[in-house]
Amino acid sequence: MLRGQHIQFSAWTRADSLSARRELWNGVKVVLDLEDSAGNRYQPQLDWPLAVAQWDWTYVLKRYRIPANLSKASIGLGLEKVSGTVSFDSIRIDRIAPAFAPAREKPRSVAFRFGLRGAMVESRVLDSIGLPVLLKKWGANVLRWQFNPSWPRDSGLLDSRFFEDLDANMNRLDSVVRIVRPTGARILLDFHGMGRQAFHDSRAQERIVEAWERIARRYRDVPEVWGYDLLNEPDERSWKPGLLLWDELADSIGLAIRRVDRRKILVVQPADFGEAKAFVWQKPLGWKRGYDLDPVVYSFHFYAPGELTHQGVFDQFPMGPRYPGLIAGEIWNKERLRIAMRPALEFQRRYHVGIFVGEFACVRWAPDGSTQRWMRDAIELFEEAGWDWTYHAFREWQGWDLERGQSRGDTSKVDHPAGGVVREYFRRNHP
What we know:
Blueprint: E1 6-16, E2 27-36, E3 41-42, E4 55-65, E5 70-80, E6 85-95, E7 117-122, H1 130-138, E8 142-147, H2 162-180, E9 186-191, H3 202-219, E10 225-229, H4 246-258, E11 265-268, E12 296-302, H5 306-309, E13 325-327, E14 330-332, H6 334-351, E15 354-360, H7 370-385, E16 388-391, H8 417-426
Helix pairs in contact: 3-4, 6-7, 7-8
C-alpha cells in the first residue's frame, strides 16, 4: 500500500512537433491523480522542457508523499492543449524507504547554533554602498552570497567558459571580503542557479566537483568565508541513469573540499528544491560511503504556502491570500508553519546537526499586513528551534525588497514593516 508513503514517480518520454504551450502547465502530461477520503485532490506531475518542440528519449523523476488517507488514485498520460506526438515508456512508481542512518549518540542539550542572522544577496547588486547598509545599519552578521558562475550567461556548468566565469566571480568575492572584514560578519558561499544543470550530464558533475575544490583552495584560510553551500535547491528532474544522484554527488563534492580544507562548514540542502519535506529522504553527508566530512550543517528553504508567499509572481498563484487564514483550502497559521518545518526539526534531532534556513520570504504586497505577520511567525519558529537564517533577499528582485512599499505598484524607497521585523531580530546579533 502507498498510503502515507514517500514515492519516486518517473517516466521516459519522446516528443515531436509539439505546438506552443498556452500556459506553463500545458503540454506533455504524466500526472498522478490522487483523491483523499475528505475529497481533496492532488495532481503531482512530471516536468518537461519549456519552449521545446521536440526531444529524444528523456528521463524525469519526481518525489512525492502520498496522502495517508488516500482513497482513489490513477495515472494520466497525454497532451494538454497542444498538438504533436509523444511516446511514453517505463512509467514507474517506486516506494522510497526512509533514509535513516544510525542516530548520533549525543545529548540534544548540546547547542549547535552559530548565532547567524542575515540575508541572501545577489552578487551583481551589492557593492561598497549597499553592503554597509545591510551589515552596519540593519545589523546582519552573515551574507548568503549568490556565487553564480553562469552570469552573465545562462549556460553555467554547461558553458565552455565556466571556469573563466568562476575566476571572475572569485575576484569579485575578494572585494566583498575586504568590505565585510571590518564588520566581523561572515559569508556563506551559495553555489546558485545550477541546481538542475548539475544533473544534466557527467561533465557538469565533474565540473561542479572541480569548482568546489578550486573555491576551497582559494578561501580555506579566509576567516570571513564561514562555509560552503554546495548546491542551491538541488533538482534531480533531469537526472539520467549513469549519473550521480544528489546524495552521491554531495559526497563527492564534500570529499573534494575536505582534501584541501578540513575546517570550513559544509552546508547541504536536500534534493527536491531544498524544501523541508525532503529531509525524510535526505541521507547525512558521507554516511552512505563511510566518509567523515564534518563539520556539516543542513539547510532548507521556506516559502510555504506558495499560494501566499508567491501570489502575483506565478500565474497559478493569483493575488489575494491573507495570512493567517484559509489558503488553498487549508488554514495556515503559525502552527501550520511549524508542521511544514517539522521534517527539518526531526532530522536535526535524530542526527544532532545544525540547521541553516538559507532562504525564506513572502512577497511584499501580500494584503493587510500578511507579509510581516508571516515573516514574524517564521522567524519566531526558527529562533525557537535554534536555527541560523538568511532571509531572501536584500536589494535583489523588487518583489522581495523590504525597502519598498506594501502594494505591488509601489516601488518607491520606503521602510516596509516586514523590514522592521527582520531588523528587530538582527539586533540580537549585537547584544
